[in-house]
Write a structure and sequence with these properties.
Layout (H helix, E strand, L loop, with lengths): L13 H8 L5 E5 L4 E5 L1 H10 L23 E9 L5 E10 L6 E6 L14 H14 L3 H19 L3 E6 L9 H8 L8 H8 L7 E3 L11 E7 L4 E8 L8 H44 L3 E5 L5 E4 L1 H7 L3 H4 L14 H13 L8 E6 L5 E12 L5 E9 L1 H46 L6 H27 L7 E3 L1 H18 L2 E5 L8 E3 L1 H19 L4 E10 L7 E8 L6 H4 L17 H11 L3 E7 L2 E9 L5
Parallel strand pairs: 16-18
Antiparallel strand pairs: 1-2, 1-5, 3-4, 4-5, 6-9, 7-8, 8-9, 10-11, 10-14, 12-13, 13-14, 15-17, 18-19, 19-21, 20-21
Helix pairs in contact: 1-7, 3-4, 3-7, 11-12, 14-16
């Protein structure tokens, strides 16, 4: 074609070149916004030469005087007033059709009688432009194709005079879940029974040419024509057209339509490939984000400049900052170390290069937003995105709980050792203490009570008694506890216990309260061991009052935990001074006591007794009162 492309900034020329070439009258495509002619055919070139022998002006305003008067309707006819080189005006009747939804590109065809041709050879301009608009709409996206392709084929059959038109897809449409849809449309066509044979034969055909099917499939009707579409990498499919017998004039229209389809099918495949790739990337990114946000480790990624580009939710919670507060900031603003993160990373990789074995994780102490210090296991990785961009990935694990468990294990091991040592020591001490008591009794028998030697011996006897009591407690704590279990009525048990404490309560000016419920279920317990627990709690409360008087209250009730199984809740409370805050967390440990003359074994042994009964004991204390709560399992069915 001899038409020249003036501006190629709007759309690839293939479709419009084909469209203009199919017309027998002067035609050109122009842009309202740019005021320039984009494409034109040979007839238009001759038409412009007749108006401007020395060359048409590039300014659109100097070519058509009334171009701004065009109608806004999609297709309309009007008279264009063309300027001629001598300054005169030549009115020419034209037909304008918008080619895009933005109403910018317009196809103008001259229909002046001077340029009229035999109607038999005249290409139906309005049909071509309508098909062009319909194809553009249907091939915008996969969704538009699904909704409009079948109707588009019907429209072409009705308006073009073609008996049938169908599209035989290649396997590439299976990737986009369109193959079955197109196959269903073909099942309604007359050529469907031959579709497998045609598909096999089209593999040998050249693309972009309109051919007769009978040339390679002799049993096919002579009115069947085929047009194969292929891009640079794959076969797209083939159009099969059934023309009316003896209708050779419609082939030019068919060729134009197929070349339009050729361009748009390639564009649609490219769009769907890009969309699929985009969705895959979005899915993978979303999946990766979900995985990273839901792992138990913290992840922080920094770029070449050590600026934070990503931080997951675990890291945010770990440090106490929202992602938006730290992204874009220097990593040193978040991870504060003595040497700085850059030096830490440099040292990490230099050390790693000198190690033959696998990398070992490092535990460091970092700071939360609140100022709290926490131990963190840190692993550092490098990721090179391309030649210019590399990223450093920090994988963080808050090991606060692990460290606490480790310290507790060490403490338990130490206590176990101390317990064994204390038990051994207690055995070694007991015999000498017993011997001392025998000699002290002998000394006292030889002295008068007013004698200083007698008094000194008595003080030694008290100290020996304290040592003996301490040894007894140590041995009781270190030996396995043997319980003699029997049914225990808690109400009666506690009433009897309080009865024995009455004299002490009166002497110390202490009031006590206990109102047991009726028919309270029984528990399985060792009465002597439980008596030791409650005697210890009541005795501690009396000591805490320091002869100033007070109130002790006992209460029993039923407790139903979520895990199932009813339990008896026994609370022992007093209105004394309470337990110091620095001691409350260690109150059940050996040697921990707030009493002046206490040895710190009473509550430790009490807890051991309660836990041996498959129960639990806890304490709540505040200035002005302390409450011990004991949970013991109730007999099943009681």
């Amino acid at each position: 074609m001899s038409g020249k492309l003036i501006d190629n900034s709007f759309i690839t020329s293939n479709v419009y070149d084909t469209f203009l070439f199919s017309l027998a009258t002067p035609a050109f495509i122009w842009s309202i916004n740019c005021k320039k002619i984009q494409y034109f055919n040979e007839q238009a070139e001759r038409f412009f030469e007749s108006l401007w022998p020395s060359g048409k002006p590039s300014e659109f305003d100097r070519l058509i005087r009334n171009w701004k008067d065009i109608s806004y309707s999609e297709h309309h006819t009007m008279w264009f007033e063309f300027f001629q080189q001598d300054g005169s005006i030549k009115p020419v009747q034209v037909r304008n059709s918008y080619l895009d939804q933005k109403r910018d590109l317009i196809a103008t065809v001259v229909i002046n009688p001077t340029w009229a041709v035999d109607q038999q050879n005249h290409q139906p301009m309005s049909f071509i432009t309508r098909i062009l608009g319909s194809v553009s709409s249907v091939f915008c996206s996969r969704t538009d194709f699904i909704e409009g392709f079948e109707n588009l084929l019907d429209e072409i059959e009705i308006e073009s005079g073609i008996s049938e038109i169908g599209f035989i897809p290649s396997d590439c449409f299976k990737r986009f879940d369109l193959y079955e849809m197109i196959h269903r449309i073909n099942s309604q066509k007359s050529f469907f029974v031959y579709i497998d044979q045609i598909t096999n034969e089209t593999k040998k055909l050249e693309s972009g040419k309109l051919l007769y099917v009978v040339d390679f499939l002799p049993e096919a009707p002579e009115t069947w024509m085929i047009y194969k579409i292929k891009d640079e990498t794959q076969e797209i499919g083939s159009f099969l057209i059934v023309i009316r017998p003896g209708d050779s004039q419609s082939q030019q229209i068919i060729q134009t339509i197929l070349e339009i389809f050729n361009f748009h099918f390639k564009e649609l495949i490219e769009k769907m490939e890009m969309t699929k790739s985009l969705y895959q990337n979005v899915f993978e990114n979303s999946l990766n984000s979900i995985i990273v946000d839901n792992i138990s480790e913290g992840v922080i990624i920094v770029n070449n400049d050590f600026l934070i580009v990503y931080i997951n939710q675990i890291s945010s919670k770990m440090f106490g900052f929202c992602p938006k507060d730290v992204i874009g900031h220097d990593i040193d603003d978040l991870i504060v170390t003595r040497e700085g993160v850059r030096e830490m990373v440099s040292h990490h990789f230099s050390t790693e290069e000198n190690q033959d074995d696998d990398e070992t994780d490092t535990i460091r102490y970092f700071h939360r937003r609140s100022g709290e210090t926490f131990p963190c296991q840190i692993e550092i990785k490098k990721f090179d995105f391309d030649e210019k961009n590399s990223y450093t990935i920090f994988i963080l694990t808050d090991v606060t709980e692990t460290e606490e468990n480790r310290m507790k294990s060490e403490q338990l091991a130490q206590r176990a050792f101390l317990g064994d040592f204390a038990s051994l020591l207690a055995h070694e001490i007991r015999n000498p203490v017993n011997n001392m008591n025998v000699w002290i009794q002998n000394i006292k028998s030889l002295c008068h009570e007013d004698d200083e030697i007698y008094k000194a011996a008595h003080r030694i006897e008290d100290d020996c008694s304290r040592v003996s009591h301490l040894v007894t407690n140590i041995l009781a704590y270190s030996k396995p506890l043997k319980l003699n279990l029997e049914e225990v009525d808690l109400a009666s048990f506690l009433l009897d216990l309080l009865e024995r404490w009455k004299i002490n309560f009166v002497r110390s000016n202490i009031k006590y309260y206990f109102s047991p419920p009726d028919n309270f279920p029984k528990i399985m317990g060792d009465p002597r061991a439980l008596e030791q627990v409650f005697n210890n709690l009541i005795g501690n409360a009396i000591d805490a009052f320091d002869n100033k008087g007070g109130v002790i209250s006992l209460k029993i009730s039923l407790y139903q935990p979520e895990t199932g199984g009813r339990k008896a809740l026994i609370s022992v409370s007093d209105n004394g001074p309470g337990i110091p805050d620095d001691m409350i967390d260690h109150i059940f440990e050996p040697f921990v006591t707030s009493k002046k003359k206490g040895n710190g074994w009473g509550l430790a042994i009490s807890k051991r007794i309660v836990t041996s009964h498959k129960g639990s004991i806890q304490v709540k204390s505040y200035p002005g009162g302390t409450v011990f709560e004991i949970l013991l399992p109730i007999i099943n069915g009681a």
